[in-house]
Amino acid sequence: MNKKVVLAFSGGLDTTYCAKYLASEKGLDVFTIAVNTGGFSKDEVEALEAKARQLGVVEHRTVNIEQEFYDRCVKYLIFGNVLRNGVYPLSVSAERVFQAMAVADYVKEINADYVAHGSTGAGNDQIRFDMIFQILLPQVEILTPVRDQKLSREEEIAYLKKFGLDVPWQKAKYSINQGLWGTSVGGEETLTSHRPLPEEAYPTQVTEQTPLVLTLQFENGELSGFNDRKFDNPLKAIKALNALIAPYGIGRDIHVGDTIIGIKGRVGFEAPAPLLILKAHQLLEKHVLTKWQMYWKDQLANWYGMLLHEGQYLEPVMRNIETFLEDTQHHVSGTVFVKVHPYRFELQGIKSPFDLMASDAAAYGEMNHLWDGNDARGFAKILAVQSRIFHQVQQKAGGNEE
Amino acid sequence: MNKKVVLAFSGGLDTTYCAKYLASEKGLDVFTIAVNTGGFSKDEVEALEAKARQLGVVEHRTVNIEQEFYDRCVKYLIFGNVLRNGVYPLSVSAERVFQAMAVADYVKEINADYVAHGSTGAGNDQIRFDMIFQILLPQVEILTPVRDQKLSREEEIAYLKKFGLDVPWQKAKYSINQGLWGTSVGGEETLTSHRPLPEEAYPTQVTEQTPLVLTLQFENGELSGFNDRKFDNPLKAIKALNALIAPYGIGRDIHVGDTIIGIKGRVGFEAPAPLLILKAHQLLEKHVLTKWQMYWKDQLANWYGMLLHEGQYLEPVMRNIETFLEDTQHHVSGTVFVKVHPYRFELQGIKSPFDLMASDAAAYGEMNHLWDGNDARGFAKILAVQSRIFHQVQQKAGGNEE
Amino acid sequence: MNKKVVLAFSGGLDTTYCAKYLASEKGLDVFTIAVNTGGFSKDEVEALEAKARQLGVVEHRTVNIEQEFYDRCVKYLIFGNVLRNGVYPLSVSAERVFQAMAVADYVKEINADYVAHGSTGAGNDQIRFDMIFQILLPQVEILTPVRDQKLSREEEIAYLKKFGLDVPWQKAKYSINQGLWGTSVGGEETLTSHRPLPEEAYPTQVTEQTPLVLTLQFENGELSGFNDRKFDNPLKAIKALNALIAPYGIGRDIHVGDTIIGIKGRVGFEAPAPLLILKAHQLLEKHVLTKWQMYWKDQLANWYGMLLHEGQYLEPVMRNIETFLEDTQHHVSGTVFVKVHPYRFELQGIKSPFDLMASDAAAYGEMNHLWDGNDARGFAKILAVQSRIFHQVQQKAGGNEE
Amino acid sequence: MNKKVVLAFSGGLDTTYCAKYLASEKGLDVFTIAVNTGGFSKDEVEALEAKARQLGVVEHRTVNIEQEFYDRCVKYLIFGNVLRNGVYPLSVSAERVFQAMAVADYVKEINADYVAHGSTGAGNDQIRFDMIFQILLPQVEILTPVRDQKLSREEEIAYLKKFGLDVPWQKAKYSINQGLWGTSVGGEETLTSHRPLPEEAYPTQVTEQTPLVLTLQFENGELSGFNDRKFDNPLKAIKALNALIAPYGIGRDIHVGDTIIGIKGRVGFEAPAPLLILKAHQLLEKHVLTKWQMYWKDQLANWYGMLLHEGQYLEPVMRNIETFLEDTQHHVSGTVFVKVHPYRFELQGIKSPFDLMASDAAAYGEMNHLWDGNDARGFAKILAVQSRIFHQVQQKAGGNEE
C-alpha cells in the first residue's frame, strides 16, 4: 500500500503540478482538498472537483468552513476594528490560516503520512501553511515540491504535458484572491511603489451612481441586519450587504505593509462590506465604550491583526485577546446611519440605548448637575499639579527645561 | 494705580463682557490680547482691535504665533500622523494651548497681577486655559467672570447695554472655529448622536468637480512643496495647499470623542490640507520606515495627540516624544502621488531614495539572494516552536486547549 | 424625623469628630459603618463598636468583606503580578475602594440621605471615597466636615471635649494601615526623600533566623496551599502563609510613586505573603505562559494596578481586563519551591505539568527534532531581512544611518 | 593566494576546531579575533593569543571595545533600567552583538572573503552572529563548521589530536560567561526547572558580612562616582563598584525567559554592580521624572531589551529609542543612599535638586497653595464623570453591568 499525502489544492498550475508529481514521482496516494472560506462559488467548487478527478487523485474533498471562519476569526476582526496599517482588512492572510487548519484536520482524519502545499519559496503563504502544519501535525512531514525544485512555470507546464495535461495555463494579468473578508488584487502596478491599479483591475466594476441610504444594526458587536432586513446569522448579513454595496466601488485601496518575511509588500484589494462594517462598528463603539475601553481594544486588536497576518493564529495569547474583545461587546448594540456614494461612504450617526453622549444622558435630567465651573477649576488645578511642580523645580534648580 | 489684568480676547460676547466687567466692577486695568494661530485674516485682526478700542481697554495686543505653532506643535502632529480616534486632526484643542502660552508670556512681560479668560464652566477650553496658567503663572490669580457668575447670554447683553454697547449679539447657527490646522463646526446636529451636518454648515463649499493630480514633496517628514512649487517654509506650503484643495470638500468629517471632562463630544470639522498631508506622509512612512519604527511612532504619537488634546502640552514627556518623533524622520523624504476628487482623494503611490520596498531593492541586483525556500522552511519551523511546544504540552497534560 | 447620614467610621480622631459634628451641628441621624477588608482583629472590631456606642450613633454596623475583596480584586492582583512601580502591592489603595463600595451598599440599604467620610483635603483617600460615591450614589450628597472646615487636630479635640470625649488622642509615631494585602507605614522619615524607616517602625519584628524551605501550590493562578497544607479557600492560605513568614521580615520596602493628586508620595510597607505569592506566581508563569501572553498580561495588569490605585475600579475596562487575566490562568498550576531567609527569599524553581521549558519537553522524545542548524541559519537570515535592506538602502542613498 | 576567513575566536574547543578545520580542510588563510567587552583579564588575553599562535593562524587580533560597548549599549540599559523579565541584566546577549560587530569591522578592514563562528545549531548565539553578519556583511559568506557538521566534542578532540593538539578539553562543571554587565552561569541545575544553583557555582564567593553603607552619584543618568570617589568615566566607576560589592553576593539570580528560538531557557548569573546601579538609578528616576515619563521609558526600554536580546541591535528603531531614553535623562542627577548586606541591598533614599517630592517643593513655600479640599472635591467629581454616566446608562437600559 502506498503512503498517503494530503495536498491543499487550488486548481492552479502549482498545485496541479504537485498532484501529478507526488503521485508519479513519489509514488504517493494523493488526496486533494479545497477549503472554501467564502471565496468559491458553486461553479468554481464543481470545476475544481472536475479538475481533481481529471488528475486522477485518490480522492478530492471540498470543505466549506465559512461559518467556522466567521465564528473563530472574522467576528473578532470586527470586534477589534482590525485594519492592518489602518487600511487592509487582512482579507487573504486570515483565510490561509483557516485553510491550513482544515487541511490539518483532513490529514488527521485519514491518517495521512504527508501534507503538501504548492507555495513557492518567495511569499508569505508558505510560512502560514508551514507554521500551522508544524504546530498541529508535528509528526507529519511537509512536502513542498514547487518550493524545493525552484521550478519555473514553463518547467511545470512541460512536465504536465507529458501526462497529456495540455491546459492553456496563461497567467492572468491580475492575480485575484477572493474570500469572505475581501478580495486581493495583485498586478504589475503593485510591484512598483508609485503606480495605482486601473479601474479594470478590480473584480467589481462601479455601476451604481445614486447615493444609497443605509441603516446597519449591530447586536453585541455583530451585524444582525441592515435596513429592514433581519438575519439569523451575521455571516448572511455580511454577504447580502457586500452584494448590495459592491457596485459602488467602496472598500477599495492599496495596502503597503510588512510581510512576515521582512520585505515590504504592496497589494490592492476590494472589500466593500468589511470596510463599511468595520467603520460603522467603530463609530458605534466611540459612543458606547469608555475612553480606556477603546484604548485597550485598539492595542490588543492591533496585535491580533498582526499575529494573525503573520500566521500566529495558534499562539495562545490569541485566545486571551479574543476573550477580552468579546467581553467589551456587551453593549455594542444599536443602529448606525450610513450614506453610500460611488467610491466612498459617509457615517452619519448612531442610535443606541447604551450611548454615553452627554446630550442623551442630559435628557435623563441630571446631566446639568454633573459638575459646575467651580469643580472644573479644581479639576484643572489638580490636573496641572505635576507639571507645575516640575516647572517650579526646574526654575529653582536653574535647569534649562527645554 | 490699578492692578493689571491680561484678558484673552476673541471679540465675542463672553470676552466682551469680561473686558467691561473687569474694568468697571473690579477696577482693574484691562489689557486684551488676541493670539493668531492661523485662523484670523488681516480684516479680522483689525476688527478685533477696533472692538477692543471701543471697549476702552488700556491696551490691545495682537500676536501672530503661526510659525511658533507650526514649529513647536503642528510639525510633530505631522511626524506622528496624529488623528484623534482615527479622524480628527486636533484642530482647535492644540491651538488653545498655544494661545494660552502666548497670553502667559504677555502677563509676564507687563507683570500683570491677574490673567482672565471668558470660558464658561461647561467645556474643555477652560481646562486648557487654566492648566497652562497654573503651570506657567503659578503666582498669578486666574479670573473667570463668566464661569463664576454662571451668566446667560441675555444677562451679559443686558449688562453691556448699560454701557451703551448695544451690538446685535445674535448667535450664529453654526459655531465656527478657524485655525491653521483645521476649522471646527458645531451646530444643533452635533449635539445629537445621529444627525450629520448639512452641506451649508461647512465654511468652504464644494465648487470644484474636475479631479486634480498632485505631487507632494516631503523632506525629513515636512512638506517642502507640491507640484512644481518649492516653499522656503512648510507653513507656507500648508496654506497654499489648503487654498488649492479646500473647494474639493475633502478633509470633512464628524469627530466623536472623549473630552477632558469625561463626557463624549461630537464636532464637525473641515481640514483639507491637514488630512491630505497626514495621509500622504503616512504612506511615505510605510515605505521608508521599518515595522517597529511605525509601531512605536504610532504608540507615542497617539499619546502625544491625547495629552495635547487634554491640555497637557507642558508635561515633560511631550518633549521626549517630540525628540523621538523627530529622530524617526531622517529618511522620510520623497514624493507622494495623489489624485483629488470631490469629497475624497486617492493616494496613488510614492517615490523615495529610502524606499524599502523589495521591488526597488531588487533592482539593486541582490534581492534574489536574500533567502531561498530552504531558509523560509527553517524560518517557519523556528517561528512555530513556541506554539508547537505549547500544543504538545497541552496534549500531554490532557489539557483542553479549546 | 431627622435625615440620615452614613459615616465611614475608623474610630480615629477625624471620624469621631465627624460623628459628633453631623449629629449635633447638622441634626442628622448618624449611622456608622466599619468595613473590614482583612486588617481588623476581633478585638479591634469590638473596640470600634464600643467607641461608636459611646458616641451615641443611631446604629453601628461592621461588615467583613475580606472574601469579596479577595474574589473581586486581590485575585486579579495576583493573576497580574501587580506591583506599583515594581515595588508596592497596592495594600491600602485597593482596600479603600472596597470599603467605599460597602459604605455605598449600606447607604442604599437604609436609604440614607447623605454619605460622609472623614478625609482631609490633603490626600488620596478623599478622591477614592468621592469617586465611588459619585458613581454609585449619584443622588446622595457627600459630606466631608474635616475637609470643608480645614480643622487642626487641636480644634477637633477641643470640640470633642465639649461632649466629654476626653480621650488621649496622641498621634502615634508611625501611622499604620493594616489590611489583607499588606500594611502601610508612614512616619517622619517617609516625608523625606532620603531617610529609611527604622526597624521599630514596622509592625512585625524579625524574630526568625533559621531559613525556611517552602513549597507553594498554585491552581489556575490561585494559591491553593503550601507545604503539605491544602486550603479550601485561597484567602485562608494567604493568611496562614502571612503568619508563617512575617517574622522573617520579608516583603518590606519603601514605595515612591505618583499619587492621584499629582504629587509624589513615599510610604513604607510590610506585605510578607503578598510579595512572596506575587513573585512565586510570576516565576510559575514564566514557565507556563508564552512570551506574548506574559507581555500582554504585564501591559494590562500594569494598568489594572494604576487605575485601581487611582480609584477607577468601576471604570468598565477593569472588568474587561479581569476577564483577560482570568483567561490566561488556565494552566498556571504547579508547585513553586522557595527558601525564606531573614529579610529576603529565594525562588528556587518550579514543577508544573504545563511547563514549556525545553528540557522537559525534550523528555517527551521529540525536542531534538524541533529544528537543526540549517533551520537556524534560515531563520536568522530571514529575521535579518528588514534591517539588511534598510542598511543597503542607506548606503545606496548615501545616507548617514546613525 | 588563499582566500581569507575571519574567525571569532574564544580559545574553546569549538573555535579551536574551526581554526584548524578552516585552514587544513578548506585551505583558507585564518585570521582569528578575540573581542573583549569587559570579560577578559590581561592574562586571559595573552593566553588566547598564545593559543592562536600555537594553532598557526595567519594573524590573531585582540580588540578591546569595552568603552564602545558602554557608550553604545550599557548606557542605554541603565537609562532604561533594563532587566529582562524583571530579573536579568542581559549580561551575555548584549555582548555577543557587539563582538559580532567588531568581527565584521575586521572582515571589512582586511577585506576577508569569509566570516566564521563556532556556534552549534542549538543556541541563541548563532542567531546573533548570523544576523549581524547578514546585515553588515551582505556579500560575505558565513562559515559555521561545527553547526554544519553536527560534531560531538569527542569528534572535535579526535580531529585536533591528529595535529598534535592534545589539550585536556575537559568540560567545566559550570559554563561561565564573564562580561562587563554580568557573568552568566550554566550547569546541570539550570537545565531543570526546579533546581537552584549551589553556592560554589557562582564565580564570586561571599566573603563579606559587615553591612556597607554607600552613596552613588548619578549625573544625567550615568554613574559618575560613589562615596567620595569621582570617576572621569562611568565605565571605571562601574568596574570599581563591582569589585567592591561582589563579595557580598548581591546581584545573583536565575533568569527564566524566552530564547530567540522560541524555547524557554534558564540561566544563573551574578551581576553585582549592574543590579545595584539599575535599581538605584530607577529609584532616582521615581523622584525626578513624571508619571508619564516613567511609563513611556518603561515601555520603550522593555522593547530595547527584548530586541537587543534577540539580536536586533541594528534595527533602526533602536536608535530612535536610544534618542528618547537619552532625552529623559537631563535631570536624572543626584545621590542615592544604599546599604549593602550579604545577598541583598537596601535602597534608603535619594537627594536631588530635581526631586519632585512634595515635601521638598513644600520647602519652597508654596506647596500648601497647590490645591485645597474644594479643588479636590471638584477633581474627584469630574474624574468620576465617565464611569458615572456609564453606570447611569446601564441602569436606564436595564443592562446587567455585573
TrEMBL record, chains A, B, C, D:
GO MF terms, alphabetically ordered: argininosuccinate synthase activity; ATP binding
What top-level branch of life does the organism fall under?
Bacteria
Q: What class of enzyme is it?
A: ligase
| Keywords per UniProt | Amino-acid biosynthesis, Arginine biosynthesis, ATP-binding, Ligase, Nucleotide-binding
Report the residue ranges that make up the Arginosuccinate synthase-like N-terminal domain in this protein.
Answer: 4-165
Which CDD domains would you find in this protein's record?
ASS (cd01999)
What InterPro entries has UniProt attached to this entry? Arginosuc_syn_C, Arginosuc_syn_N, Arginosuc_synth, Arginosuc_synth_CS, Arginosuc_synth_type_1_subfam, AS_cat/multimer_dom_body, Rossmann-like_a/b/a_fold
A single GO CC term, please? Answer: cytoplasm
| Domain (Arginosuccinate synthase C-terminal): residue spans on this chain | 174-389
Query: Per its record, how is this protein called by name?
Result: argininosuccinate synthase
What species was this sequence derived from? Caldithrix abyssi DSM 13497
